[in-house]
Design a protein that fits this description.
- Helix content is 24%, strand content 20%.
- By secondary structure, it is an alpha/beta fold.
- The chain has a domain at 101-201 and 220-346: Isochorismatase-like (Rossmann fold, 3-Layer(aba) Sandwich).
- The strands form 5 sheets. Strands 13-12-11-14-15-16 form a 6-stranded parallel β-sheet. Strands 5-6-9-8 form a 4-stranded mixed β-sheet, with no helix packed on it. A 3-stranded antiparallel β-sheet has the order 10-7-17, with no helix packed on it.
- Strand 15 (309-318), helix 9 and strand 16 (343-345) form a beta-alpha-beta unit.
- The two termini are 34 Å apart.
Length: 357
């Protein structure tokens, strides 16, 4: 709190300058940000480090702007960008964060088709990226991109967290730390055994595709898609009880005992309170799927960006990619659209400052 002293006159007896009692100057939680845009000459493509998974972002005009986040004693440096139609280009900004006030969250790292037991139902069932081949591609991306990123940051950031569907059940409660509970080593061993039994006892078989459809004469297209939609993840093809199984974190990640699992059904309010109460101000967001869960679930950026400084790690995410063998263009489109109102970074732009003196 700052105080302002006001001169009121000089005492006629002693000649000492007199002051009013100190008046408090109102505090403000705002600063003046100089929104200056300096053109960047010959800008290179963005998000070009992993071309198997991400089609690089290419725009002719780039500008450099001052840091938006500039923490005192920062040790985590995150360059980021956004796109502005009004500015007619991409705006790149450096940011300087305190790692101790940062959480790294991975949205929906589903453990499917990864030998833990939960798998794509046959012959026509769908889950996650909806085919075994696409799920295996996402698993490879997890191992190559997201896993090493989490491992690099884990010892310095406040939390590494994963979000999963549903609520904390008996099995996952024994397997993973949550925002309300930390299981013992014995709990984890028991939970792992229970998970294996539970997932492998399910019958991953549903109905086959219909061989014949009854269509009306005047509106056959309407009837066709109603009776044979492009995506049906119901019990018809997945079998009753499939979505009630305890979805685990993928085995393609090295989940540490201190890592925390967020359950979607517990709601955003609980997550927000937990992060705020633990001093988290910044979030690096990774995970799947960029066009769906990554933005709209409990730990999606549509929630988090209302209350925290959120950075979407663009190449640490994949969008769904129907009718394609590669997610490159789908994730490019999803991240590019998000960049209108979100800051985008990439794995190579997130840099930890050495603690060595």
């Amino acid at each position: 709190m700052r105080f302002i002293f006001t001169v009121t006159g000089v005492c006629c007896i002693c000649g000492v300058t007199q002051f009013k009692a100190p008046a408090a100057e109102p505090e403000t939680n705002e600063r003046s940000y100089l929104n200056s845009l300096t053109p960047i000459e010959d800008p290179g493509p963005l998000l070009a480090d992993y071309p198997e998974y991400f089609e690089p972002v290419i725009e002719r005009k780039h500008f450099e702007a001052p840091a938006i986040v500039s923490d005192a004693n920062s040790d985590l440096h995150v360059r980021a960008w956004r796109f502005s139609y009004n500015a007619r280009g991409i705006i790149e900004v450096p940011n300087h964060l305190r790692a101790s006030e940062t959480a790294v969250i991975m949205v929906h790292p589903w453990g499917i088709d990864d030998a833990q037991g939960w798998r794509t139902p046959q012959p026509a069932g769908v889950a996650d990226f909806c085919t075994e081949e696409k799920n295996h591609l996402a698993a490879r991306h997890t191992r190559q991109v997201i896993g090493p990123f989490l491992d690099r940051l884990r010892s310095r950031v406040k939390f590494v967290m994963y979000s999963l569907p549903g609520e904390k059940d008996e099995i996952r409660g024994r397997l993973y730390r949550s925002i309300t509970h930390t299981p013992s080593a014995q709990d984890r061993r028991q939970g792992a055994a229970q998970l294996k039994d539970k997932l492998n006892s399910f019958k991953y078989t549903g109905e086959s595709l219909p061989s014949q459809l009854s269509l009306s004469v005047d509106k056959p297209v309407v009837d066709y898609f109603q009776k044979f939609p492009g995506l049906d993840a119901s019990a018809k093809y997945n079998n009753v009880g499939f979505w009630d199984l305890p979805i685990p974190v993928t085995s393609d990640l090295d989940v540490h005992p201190d890592d925390i699992v967020i359950y979607d059904r517990e709601g955003y309010g609980k997550l927000k309170s937990f992060l705020s109460e633990n001093g988290v101000r910044h979030v690096l967001l990774t995970g799947y799927a960029t066009d769906m869960c990554f933005c709209r679930t409990t730990a999606g950026y549509e929630n988090l960006s209302k209350d925290f400084n959120v950075f979407l790690v663009g190449d640490a995410s994949l969008a769904t990619f129907p009718a394609n063998t590669s997610p490159r263009f789908a994730v490019n489109a999803a991240i590019s659209f998000a960049s209108l109102n979100q800051l985008i970074t990439q794995v190579s732009w997130v840099r930890l400052e050495s603690t060595k003196k």
